[in-house]
Amino acid sequence: MLKIPLIPYPFAGEARPCPLCGADEAISLSRWDRRLKPLPQVKCARCSLIRHAAMPTEAELTEYYRASYRSDYQNMRDGPSARHIAKRRIEAARRLEALARHLPSHASMIDFGCGSGEFVEAAMSQGFSAAGFEPGADYATYASQTRGLPVENCGWQDYAPPPNRADAVTSFHVFEHLTDPVSAMRRIGSWLKPDGLAYIEVPNMAKALYKGFGCLHMAHTIGFGRYSLELLGAMADMAVVEVIDGFDIGIIFKPGTPRDIDEIMADARQELEEWTQPKVHRQYFTYTLGKLTGHRPAALNK
Ligand SMILES: [Zn+2]
């Protein structure tokens, strides 16, 4: 049922204010997701965060992940595949290199939503002290049992960090799955030393418009651009140290005074200015037709 086009997802959700800036006003972006299933998505009129028009409740998300997430999105039922692990190791090495430039050797790290543990393992292999937690039972079990890593199977609300505050907390491709990102970011702040760093990476929605609603789906409850990600840090009293801007968007933050919130939100609105429902709908078909015929549109974002 979960893969069949046009059949709605089995959740009701509830309309809520923007989970990043709290504004009620939102602009309709799409009626559909990438499986051509009805899944209305909106953009916050103030900070441009993309989100489901009706946000799933925690209970609905738990049921969705239990029933479908791995097989639905990763074609995996019995733990991570060798291909998955190989890809994650390459990503872990790249991310560690970016972060390590800002840290003393032997620094301590916590990986928030560490999946199968490749980042924790990479950090430990380079002499850092690292730990992590992961709500997905299969990934967490693989990391702790098969790889022998200090990974706990829990969500951020239940995680008990090591007694000493961390030099860095990392979170890669997790925040787009959350429904209360600001509370999660503030929790990260509470785990850090006063001069600690938070490195957050998410898919960069500002670069995804060429796919139209092909980039929108159930598991991604919210979507960030470079500036709405900066706003996430600002809401938790964190300032930007470095922006790692590629196909994905990463920001290394430190506790401190952020840039003016209104300025960040103005930048965020401008960054996603082109995202309108007619364009998001039309672009999906342009992109899909291009894939079918082997031609990718020349001006993907225009
Ligand atoms: Zn907002």
Verbal overview:
The chain is of the alpha/beta class and 302 residues long. The protein contains 9 helices and 11 strands. Helix 3 crosses helix 4 and helix 7 (226-235) packs antiparallel against helix 8 (261-271). The radius of gyration is 19 Å and the shape is globular. Zinc ion (ZN) binds at residues 18, 20-21, 23, 44, 46-47, 49.
What is the structure about, briefly put?
The protein is an alpha/beta fold.
Q: What is the N-to-C order of secondary-structure elements (H for helix, E for strand)?
A: EEEHHHEHEHEEHEEHEEHH
Ligands bound, unique: zinc ion
Report the structural category: alpha/beta
Task: Tell me the major beta sheet.
Answer: 7 strands, mixed
What overall form do the CA principal axes indicate?
Answer: globular
Number of helices: 9
How much of the sequence lies in strands comes to: 15-25%
Strand order of the largest sheet: 6-5-4-7-8-11-10
Helix content: 25-40%
Give the terminus-to-terminus CA distance: 35 Å
Mean pLDDT: 91
| Oligomerization state | single chain
> Spans with pLDDT under 50 lasting ≥5 residues?
none
Rg over CA atoms, rounded to whole Å, is 19 Å
